[in-house]
From TrEMBL:
Protein name: DUF1049 domain-containing protein
Keyword set includes Membrane: yes
Annotated keywords: Membrane, Transmembrane, Transmembrane helix
Originating species: Streptomyces sp. R11
Domain of life of the native organism: Bacteria
Phylogenetic placement of the source organism: Bacteria, Bacillati, Actinomycetota, Actinomycetes, Kitasatosporales
Entry's transmembrane regions: 21-41, 61-80
Keyword Transmembrane helix in annotation: yes
Length: 84
């Protein structure tokens, strides 16, 4: 089933399209959190030692934080998709 449209091309079922329909409070909050996380990640640029099970790896802290953020986002997306 598709949403009915009027002659002007706007959706009749009460759904908004475009940028205004895409920006709801939850998405704005997520966008703000992503921006704050990126600022935090790129402010921490010094090298650090990280133990990965057995080996000791020296890498920039921003790279480790970014990697953990990406892994966390992937897990969150996976579990949200399974919940639906």
């Amino acid at each position: 089933m598709t949403a009915k449209t009027s002659e002007s091309g706007r959706k009749v079922d009460g759904q908004r399209g475009g940028v205004r329909g895409a920006m709801n409070p939850a998405r704005v909050a997520v966008l703000v959190l992503v921006v704050l996380a990126m600022i935090f990640i790129f402010e921490n640029t010094r090298a650090t030692e990280i133990r990965l099970l057995i080996p000791l790896v020296t890498m920039p802290l921003w790279l480790a934080l970014l990697g953990m953020g990406v892994i966390g986002a992937l897990f969150g997306a996976y579990f949200m998709r399974r919940r639906r």
